[in-house]
């Protein structure tokens, strides 16, 4: 890691960005990511952003959410619990580009009638796919131009807006992820992509540049969340 202060976003692709490879090793990586998501509180930012949009929309009693780039979809257990506590009739769709991720999500939610799993491409979402289109730890896979395109695709695919959770690029977060990934997993995806994900993460200035470039004057709001995360949301 040449830039020890992580002043600029890393541009190198992650192993998971190569969709021509996968198989058992990738499925194992999605299982190990569930543990890392729990350790680092990955569910919190997306839930926070969904709640902001839900409140701004008048607290509807029925809500549909599409989690795009869902991986195993494990972070959505917090969303399901929140919906139960608020008395919301929630319909949740988990979408990912890879069949390996979809297979893990189907296995995790096989007994949950509120959840549907579909193999989906973010950039091919149809208008109004769900009330809210959410993404957790997805946007750091893209360069700045692609991040803008991804946010606009999520907004187009929603009826209310999009909710985003992603990583704060910070040396402390990088060191913590480097150490934990080598403690909990021997999987090559986890060990390579974990620290690199932090180096590809965001700071407040990155989100401000994205906001300035959104079409139609899109108003992206963001909030720093515990354990070096950002919650972002765009109201349609």
TrEMBL record:
Name of this chain's protein: Methyltransferase domain-containing protein
GO process terms (BP): methylation
A single MF term (Gene Ontology): methyltransferase activity
Entry keyword set: Methyltransferase, Transferase
Lineage, broadest ranks: Bacteria, Bacillati, Bacillota, Bacilli, Bacillales
InterPro entries, per database record: Methyltransf_25, SAM-dependent_MTases_sf
CDD domains per UniProt: AdoMet_MTases (cd02440)
Residues annotated as domain Methyltransferase: 65-156
SUPFAM superfamilies per the UniProt record, alphabetical: S-adenosyl-L-methionine-dependent methyltransferases
Highest taxon of source: Bacteria
